[in-house]
Amino acid sequence: MNVIEPLFAAAIGNTNLAYDSANNYFQIRCSMAQQNITLQFMMSPSANVTDTPVVLNVAIADVIYPMDSDYMSSASVCMIGIVPTTGQIFFGESILRSLYQVYDVDQNRIGIASAIGSDSFISGATGTDASSNGGSSGGSNNSNSNSNNGSNSAGASRKASILGSTVISACILYALCL
């Protein structure tokens, strides 16, 4: 069993999700893109898992893609843009497109902030520089200034947490180290 399936099932429910083993992706009801669901990806800023991880809060709409149309509004078949895996989880375009990233190879560090137009945000990090969109550059404990801050009209949102010991460094994400 892959590590992603139970997390998606917890976040969006089993009835909204179907694994396509022939193509190795999850189909999802297109209407789920309209739901106020946030996926949380927790990463340690060092090789050791710490009590203060960097948390990438990604709106479910940012990782849902239409399969039979160019537009979500007319799509009847959609997929989740996170590939099932049995080991480590790698962040690809579907996650990274909702973030603004600055790679400082000289200092071996990455600054991360929310991308403009995205409901995703960063929390729990250790730096001090804040973006105007509520995220962080290298991380800060800033609150998100976007209208979607992880809560829905009912006052609660479902969140799936993925805790890993991913090292935030240019070496890991883009293999920039020599």
TrEMBL record:
What positions does the domain Peptidase A1 occupy? 1-113
The record ties this protein, via InterPro entries, to: PEPTIDASE_A1 (IPR033121), Peptidase_aspartic_dom_sf (IPR021109)
Q: Where is this region: Disordered?
A: 132-152
Signal peptide, first to last residue:
none
Under PROSITE patterns, the record lists: PEPTIDASE_A1 (PS51767)
Which Pfam families does the record associate with it? Answer: Asp
Protein name as it appears in the record: Peptidase A1 domain-containing protein
Q: What is the lineage of its organism?
A: Eukaryota, Fungi, Fungi incertae sedis, Mucoromycota, Mucoromycotina
